[in-house]
Amino acid sequence: MIRVAGLRKTYGGFPAVVGSDFEVSEGEIFGVVGPNGAGKTTTLKTLAGLIEPTEGTVEIGAYDAGDAEMRRHLGFLPEESPLYEDMTARSYLRFFADLYDVPREEATRRTEDTLDRLELEHRDRRLGDMSKGMKRKVAIARSLVNDPDLLIYDEPASGLDPLTTNYVLEFTRELAERGKTVVFSAHNLYHVESVCDRVVIMNRGEIVARGTVPEIREEHGETTYRVFATVPVEGSEATDDGRYLRTVGDMAAVEAVRVEAEFAGGGVADIRTDEPSLEDVFLDIAGRPPAAREDGRGRADSAAAARADGGREGERTDSGDDRGTW
Ligand SMILES: Nc1ncnc2c1ncn2[C@@H]1O[C@H](COP(=O)(O)OP(=O)(O)OP(=O)(O)O)[C@@H](O)[C@H]1O
User: Is 41 in the pocket of ligand 1 (CB under 6 A)?
Assistant: First the structure.
């Protein structure tokens, strides 16, 4: 579906993406992960044809990215989605459906279905009066008005509460089940793990790890999850806000906590990726010089060097610019 070869993008000589190669198959959910400034948005915008590569090729099916015909098969959700504040959700979506020449009845059915699924209420409310989560849902519905084969979502759950985030992530999975290819970027490894088939981790414009999330974790370190249950579960500690915290090391254990909590008449209120673990994975990968990465050397050294440098364990200490900060 997508073939990226030797992709390089510079802004006035500044290398935002430096030689990316990856492929995404049809129906796959593909995550682009990395710290602020890693080059995720640049990569996604290049796939969407909104940015021209400085070097390299980006092919989407039979088209080059940027080909006008390709756009008809694409749904792009930018990180910040400015909406026309005076329009209602319905009129806004109808406006975009008209731009894509979608017949009225078909457009209404499609957008109402999407908004039902995302549980968006008040569809005739002004967009300017909607909450951030509601606006994000409208933006997601907009990305689907043309029934695209490929969806490119930049931080789809950015700034959303846990419940809305879950809707959005579950919905992303549903889209792939309906045969759509989804490429999305995120900071949160838990979000990525819950929906992505494969992932690339970027840092300073470079892909520094790739594979399924379990493959990456196995190779580069362990992530832990803090699961907040509404009832006591085995090994949990009560938190100040009346929840019960259990820290576990993998998704099977997260699922076991959820089942235990539900069996006890409660549920899971929130799940958080343990940040130091995430940073350990990142430091393990990104702290090594590129040459050492090639042959697997330098892994323990780089984390140790970061700590010896005076930083907290897992904290980056070398952010001389805006690149490479989680
Ligand atoms: N139009 C631009 N002009 C100059 N530099 C840019 C431009 N767009 C991005 N950059 C720089 O390129 C680098 C990569 O930016 P990009 O937005 O792709 O990163 P990102 O991984 O999406 O970051 P974030 O997580 O903060 O959104 C950053 O250092 C950024 O400052």
Answer: yes
Judge if 41 and 128 occupy the same domain. Answer: yes
ipTM tops 0.90? yes
Residue 324 beta carbon below 6 angstroms from any ligand 1 atom: no
Give the nearest ligand 1 atom to 323 CA. 29
On whether residue 85 sits in a domain, the answer given is yes
8 Å CB contact between 316 and 325: yes
pTM here is 0.73
pLDDT band at residue 240 under the 50/70/90 scheme: very high
Query: How far, in Å, CA of 149 to CA of 151, rounded?
Result: 7
Q: Which ligand 1 atom sits closest to the C-alpha of 45?
A: 18
pLDDT tens across 178-196, in order? 999 999 998 777 778 778 9
**Residue 205 domain flag:** yes
Domain span at residue 267 reads 225-273
CA distances from 242 to 10, 230, 236, 237, 260 (A): 50, 8, 12, 10, 18
Check if 34 has its Cβ closer than 6 Å to any atom of ligand 1: yes
Q: Where are the alpha helices (DSSP H) in the chain?
A: 40-47, 68-71, 89-99, 104-117, 132-143, 162-177, 189-195, 213-220, 251-263, 275-286, 290-295, 299-308
Residue 11 domain-assigned (yes or no):
yes
For residue 64, the CA-to-ligand 1 centroid distance in Å is 23
Say if residue 269 is in the same domain as residue 281: no
First-to-last C-alpha distance (Å) of the chain: 30
H/E run at residue 242? none
Q: Which residue, judged by its Cα, is nearest atom 18 of ligand 1?
A: 39
Q: What is the pLDDT of residues 204-214, one digit of tens each?
A: 999 988 988 77
Could you tell me if residue 326 is inside a domain?
A: no
